[in-house]
Amino acid sequence: MAEACRNVSNNVIRRLPRYLRKLDELQASGLKRVSSADLGSMLGLTPSQIRQDLNSFGGFGQQGYGYNIADLRTELAEILGMNHNYKAILVGVGNMGLALVHNFSFKDYGFTLECGFDINPEIVGKTINHIPIYADVDMAEYLSKNDINVAVLCVPRRIADVKVQELRTYGVKAIWNYTNVDIDNRENDLIIENMNFPDSLLALEYYITERYRKGHGEESST
Amino acid sequence: MAEACRNVSNNVIRRLPRYLRKLDELQASGLKRVSSADLGSMLGLTPSQIRQDLNSFGGFGQQGYGYNIADLRTELAEILGMNHNYKAILVGVGNMGLALVHNFSFKDYGFTLECGFDINPEIVGKTINHIPIYADVDMAEYLSKNDINVAVLCVPRRIADVKVQELRTYGVKAIWNYTNVDIDNRENDLIIENMNFPDSLLALEYYITERYRKGHGEESST
Description:
The structure is a homodimer of 222-residue chains. The first copy, chain A, is of the alpha/beta class. The first copy, chain A, is 42% helix and 17% strand. Chain A contains eight helices and nine strands. Chain A has helices spanning 10-28, 36-43, 47-55, 69-80, 95-103, 139-145, 160-169, 197-215; strands at residues 33-34, 67-68, 86-91, 111-118, 127-128, 131-135, 150-153, 174-177, 191-194. In chain A, the strands form two sheets. The first copy, chain A, has a seven-stranded mixed β-sheet. A two-stranded antiparallel ribbon of chain A has the order 1-2. In chain A, helix 1 (10-28) packs across helix 4 and helix 2 packs across helix 3. The longest helix of chain A has 19 residues, at 10-28. The radius of gyration of chain A is 21 Å and the shape is globular. At the A-B interface, helix 1, helix 5 and helix 8 of A face helix 1, helix 5 and helix 8 of B.
């Protein structure tokens, strides 16, 4: 079924992890089936939106019977590619990189974090939370010998472009980008997922401001 | 003009920070005006999408003359609410919280990070990068005496719900959520912005897997 994943909108893709999380919760609570109505109400979506989203990937469930939770969970995991055991490296092991090394379980999402690279002599050569940290100068050689699927980019913004170019040269095609820099991808050869802190905070600020305006009756001033 | 911000779609809101960043870049490079065509090509959007987005907030620019960069930047900052100097606190100063304290400049986005709260005796009472860290048990009293607009929630997931309830009780209405937990907001009283690491990585995984399938010719198997 997963082979049919074409032309699925980005908004649908972004809802899949939420479905997965909710299904995990329901499964943990011992439930076997769930209707699109119940799933929708738990996720703040309409039943028809749920059905539409899942129909993008082929048919799941049967009208009136709801979804088998275990089956749907398996299918979603396959659609997302969680069974591929992709290999990741961490590029830059400063505060943000360390937060990921200590707190984020890549394995839970089908990735192995193989190692990290940094220039800081205090951590190069050490192993932090089971992840070996190597010298930045050795990254090129490492990449030429190992097939790495994803670079988790946590370097300072001023060297983001240089590091992306190095990763590109050595065949890393996907970047989980924590640099807050827009990576130049005009050639469209990279897959880039941005964890952009400013963009997120500015969106929050907009919604705070919108509520503030409404609270002050400005919504009637137009 | 900003008062007219009603019923603007979430997708449009999420593009505004990107516009802002690009305008800052262009301004820094000395440019005075920019056409929707040029802005679009730099951002990977169509000129009509740019015009539509900006028209959601009233009229900017004049057909054929492009946008005055400084004016548009000022308007966008006002729409986002960057001039309100909102007050933020950090709830949980572990690895993630520390990464924000050290690396993220709240001021650049119109926020003041007032202080942090944690239970760790090694940091409580200290000042880290100009941010005082107070004891978690003192948060309630602090909130009852100070008008705080945003809580940056970086606590472990198991106590996320408890902390949200405490923040709610003391009138904090907006949460920048780093816990990877879906905050219960059925009452719709909170404004929540999620920095959800798993969701982001799973979306990246989907796109990697999609490219992998295409590379293996599976796109023709449907």
